[in-house]
Write a structure and sequence with these properties.
The complex is a heterodimer of chains A (398) and B (296). Chain A is mainly alpha-helical and 398 residues long. In chain A, 62% of the residues lie in helices and 6% in strands. Chain A has a four-stranded mixed sheet, covered by helices on one side. Chain B is built from eleven helices and two strands. The chains are: A mainly alpha (398), B mainly alpha (296). At the A-B interface, helix 1, helix 2, helix 8, helix 9 and helix 10 of A face helix 1, helix 3, helix 4, helix 5 and helix 6 of B.
C-alpha cells in the first residue's frame, strides 16, 4: 500500500515537473499557428477587389504600392510599370461625388453597374469595391491579390495595420523602437547597476547593505503600471521642458523608466556574483599590497565578470519585454526612430495597444501574434545566452 | 635588509583613486535610494489625500470620475487567489520533484531548469497573448477571472518553482538520511521532515510571487480585465476590474483629467501599499526564519 502511494506521488510530482516545459511548447504552438496564419492572408481586405480598366496593363501591385496609390503618394501608373497615365482612385465613400441618389437607386442596387461602367470608361481609374458588387459579366480586370509575403513583413518599414485597401505589416519600425529604447535603457542602467552592486558587496558596511537590499527588492516589486504612471506624470513633462520637445512622450522617457526597472535585476545578479567571488582571491590581492579599490577593479570584477554579464543580459531581457510602462510613456508612433527624443513604439506596446481592437482571426490579429512570436524568440535567445554564460562559469569554477 | 621604500606620492595616489571610486559608487547608490523615495514619496503624498474609507469601499461612479475603487481591489485580490490556486500546488510539487526525486545530474533536471528559466524570461505580454489564444478563445472561457487566474498562475509558476527548489536545497542531506534510516518512506520524509523545514522560506517566496501577480497588467489585458464592471463578480466566468489595469486606463485614456487624476493617485497608492505590505511581510518571515535557525 505504501509503495503504491509512493509511486503515485512520484508520478504526480514528475508530471508537475514538466508543466513548465509543456507551457513553453503550448506558447510556441499557439503563437506560431496564429502568427504564421498571417502569411496565408491576402494583401487586399477580404471580400474586396481592386478593379482597373481592362486596357491597363498593370496587374500586380504590392501592398506598399497599393497604399501609395490610395494615399495619393503615387499618382502615375508609370511608377508601377504601366503607361504614362494619371491614377484616379475610387472608394465606396466617393460614390456620392460621381453618382446622384436617383442613379444609385434606393437600395444602391445600381451601384455595381455604375461603378463598372465608370471604371470601364476611365482608363486611369482603380476602384476599391466589394467583389459581390461587381456584375459577373463586367469587362474589368482585377489587380492580382497575392498573399502577404515574409519580406513585406520582416523588411517592411511601415506599420499601418488598419490601412485600407491594403494594410502594411512592416515590423522594422517596431523592432527598431524596441531595440533603441532597450539599448538606451541599458546604457543608463549599466553604470548605476554595476556601481551599486560593487558598493553593496565590496564597500558598504553590513548595516548599509541591510538597508540597500530591501530598497532594491522594493524597486523590483513596484508594478510596471506604477512606473509608467510616475513616468507619465513626472518624467514626460520634465523631458518636454528640458529639451523643448513638442511632446514629452519619447523614446528617452521610455529608456529612463526602463533603466529604473532593469536596475534591480542587474544589481541583484551582479551583487550575488561578486559576493560569491572566493575570499582567498581577495585576500591574496590585499596581501600583495593592493588597495581595496585595486582589488575590486583588478581581481573581484574580472573574476565575477560572467555573473555580472548575465545580470546585464537579464536586464536587457526585462527591458525588451516590458509592456505597460513603455506603452504609457513612449508616445506610440510606429515610425523608424531617428533620434531618442522622438516618440516611438515597441513590440510589446504595439501588442498591448492594438490587440483589443483587432478583430479575432483577421490579418491584424495574426500579425500581433507574429510580433509575439518574435518577442518570444528574442527573449528565448537572451535566456539561452544567460544559460551559456553561467554554464561556462560553472565549468570554470569546478 | 632595509624595508622597501615606496615613493612618497605612491600611496596617496592609490588612496585618492580609491576614495574617488568608492565615493562615486556611494553617490550612485544614494541616488537610487533617492529615486525610490521620490517615487514612493510622490505617490504617497499625492494619494494620501484621496485615500479614505469611501474610496476603498465604493464603486466608481459618474463615468469613472468619482467614487471609489472597491471592485478593482476585490478583482485584484480574486486574481491573486486564483493564480495562487494554480501556481502554488504545481510549483511546489515541481520544486519537490526537482530537488527530491530527479537525479541532480540527469538530463531531466537540466532540461526542466532550462525550460523554467526560459519561462521566467517570457515577457508578460506574451503570456497575455497566450492566455487569450488558449484560455479565452480555444478553451472558450471568454474574458473571465478563470482565464486571468490561469494566465497569471502560469506567469508566476517559475518563481514558485525556484523558491521551493532553493528552500529545499539548503536542507542538509543528513536530516533526510536520518529520517530514512528510521524506516520512513521517501514520501513520509518529504511530508514530515523536509517540507516543514523548508516551509518558512517557501512561504516567503510564495508571498513575493503574489506581489508580482498583484501588479501585472499585460497578462490580464485580454484575458480578464474589464474597463468598468462596478458590481462584484459572481462566478469565475465573470470579468473583473483590477487595480493595475484601472490605473492604466484612468491615467492614459481618461476623459476628464481634472477629476480622474486624484483617483489615479489613489489607485497607485493602494497598489504601492499592497507591494509594501507584501515586501515587509516577506522580510519579517525571513528574519523570523533566520532567528529560528540560529537557535537550533
Amino acid at each position: 500500500m505504501k509503495k503504491i502511494a509512493d509511486k503515485t506521488v512520484r508520478w504526480v510530482l514528475t508530471a508537475s515537473g514538466f508543466v513548465t516545459s509543456v507551457v513553453i511548447l503550448l506558447i510556441i504552438g499557439f503563437l506560431f499557428t496564429e502568427g504564421a496564419g498571417l502569411f496565408g492572408e491576402k494583401v487586399i481586405e477580404e471580400g474586396y477587389v481592386l478593379a482597373v480598366n481592362k486596357d491597363n496593363p498593370v496587374r500586380v501591385l504590392d501592398a506598399a504600392q497599393i497604399k501609395a496609390v490610395f494615399d495619393e503618394d503615387m499618382t502615375n501608373w508609370k511608377e508601377a510599370g504601366g503607361p504614362d497615365l494619371p491614377i484616379e482612385t475610387f472608394r465606396l465613400e466617393d460614390m456620392d461625388e460621381y453618382f446622384t441618389e436617383e442613379q444609385l437607386g434606393p437600395q444602391y442596387e445600381n451601384a455595381g453597374t455604375l461603378i463598372t461602367s465608370l471604371v470601364a470608361s476611365s482608363p486611369g481609374m482603380v476602384a476599391f469595391v466589394p467583389e459581390s458588387m461587381i456584375p459577373d459579366d463586367a469587362r474589368l480586370v482585377f489587380i492580382e491579390d497575392c498573399n502577404i509575403s515574409p519580406e513585406e513583413v520582416f523588411a517592411g518599414t511601415e506599420w499601418y495595420p488598419t490601412a485600407t485597401p491594403a494594410p502594411l505589416f512592416g515590423i522594422l519600425p517596431l523592432l527598431a523602437g524596441t531595440l533603441w529604447v532597450s539599448f538606451f535603457a541599458i546604457l543608463i542602467a549599466l553604470p548605476f547597476g554595476i556601481s551599486i552592486a560593487v558598493y553593496m558587496s565590496e564597500v558598504a558596511s553590513e548595516r548599509v547593505r541591510g538597508f540597500l537590499k530591501p530598497v532594491i527588492e522594493l524597486l523590483n516589486g513596484i508594478p510596471s503600471v506604477v512606473y509608467g504612471f510616475f513616468g507619465l506624470i513626472i518624467i514626460v513633462p520634465l523631458l518636454q521642458q528640458v529639451f523643448g520637445l513638442p511632446v514629452g512622450e519619447s523614446g528617452l522617457a521610455g529608456s529612463i523608466v526602463l533603466a529604473i526597472m532593469a536596475l534591480p535585476t542587474i544589481v541583484t545578479v551582479a551583487d550575488d556574483a561578486m559576493r560569491n567571488c572566493p575570499g582567498a582571491l581577495r585576500e591574496g590581492s590585499l596581501a600583495l599590497g593592493a588597495t581595496r579599490w585595486q582589488t575590486v577593479a583588478r581581481v573581484v570584477i574580472p573574476s565575477s565578470m560572467s555573473g555580472i554579464a548575465s545580470g546585464v543580459v537579464l536586464g536587457i531581457g526585462r527591458a525588451i519585454g516590458e509592456t505597460m510602462a513603455v506603452l504609457m510613456v513612449t508616445g506610440n508612433a510606429a515610425v523608424v526612430p531617428h533620434s531618442i527624443l522622438e516618440p516611438l513604439r515597441t513590440i510589446p506596446a504595439t501588442i498591448a495597444a492594438e490587440l483589443g481592437e483587432a478583430p479575432a482571426g483577421g490579418a491584424h490579429y495574426q500579425s500581433l501574434f507574429l510580433l509575439g512570436v518574435i518577442l518570444f524568440f528574442i527573449t528565448f535567445f537572451i535566456n539561452l545566452c544567460v544559460e551559456y554564460i553561467s554554464s561556462r562559469n560553472r565549468a570554470k569554477n569546478s | 635588509m632595509a624595508a622597501p621604500v615606496f615613493p612618497k606620492g605612491y600611496n596617496i595616489k592609490k588612496r585618492r583613486s580609491q576614495a574617488l571610486a568608492f565615493g562615486m559608487f556611494r553617490i550612485l547608490s544614494i541616488s537610487i535610494v533617492l529615486i525610490l523615495f521620490a517615487i514612493l514619496g510622490f505617490i504617497i503624498y499625492k494619494g494620501a489625500g484621496v485615500l479614505d474609507w469611501d474610496f476603498l469601499t465604493e464603486a466608481p461612479s459618474d463615468g469613472m470620475t468619482a467614487g471609489g475603487i472597491m471592485p478593482a481591489i476585490v478583482g485584484t485580490l480574486l486574481l491573486m487567489a486564483g493564480s495562487a490556486a494554480v501556481a502554488f500546488p504545481v510549483g511546489i510539487m515541481s520544486g519537490i520533484y526537482m530537488n527530491e526525486y530527479a537525479s541532480k545530474t540527469g538530463w531531466t533536471v537540466r532540461f526542466i531548469r532550462l525550460m523554467t528559466n526560459n519561462l521566467s524570461g517570457v515577457p508578460s505580454i506574451v503570456f497575455g497573448l497566450f492566455g487569450m489564444a488558449l484560455f479565452v478563445k480555444y478553451l472558450g472561457f471568454g474574458d473571465s477571472i478563470l482565464a486571468g487566474s490561469l494566465t497569471l498562475g502560469l506567469l508566476s509558476l517559475p518563481l514558485v518553482i525556484r523558491t521551493t527548489e532553493e528552500a529545499l536545497k539548503d536542507i542538509p542531506d543528513g536530516i533526510r538520511e536520518g529520517s530514512l534510516a528510521l524506516g520512513a518512506t521517501r514520501l513520509q520524509t518529504i511530508w514530515k521532515v523536509v517540507l516543514p523545514m523548508g516551509m518558512p522560506r517557501i512561504i516567503t517566496g510564495l508571498i513575493l510571487s503574489l506581489g508580482r501577480v498583484s501588479g501585472e497588467t499585460a497578462p490580464i489585458l485580454f484575458t480578464c480585465a474589464a474597463y468598468f464592471f462596478p458590481q462584484l463578480p459572481t462566478s469565475v466566468f465573470d470579468q473583473c476590474m483590477a487595480l493595475p489595469y484601472h490605473l492604466y486606463v484612468i491615467s492614459t485614456s481618461g476623459t476628464d483629467i481634472e477629476a480622474q487624476q486624484p483617483i489615479a493617485y489613489g489607485t497607485a497608492l493602494v497598489l504601492i501599499i499592497i507591494v509594501l505590505i507584501i515586501n515587509i511581510l516577506a522580510g519579517m518571515l525571513r528574519k523570523w526564519f533566520e532567528r529560528r535557525l540560529k537557535i537550533k
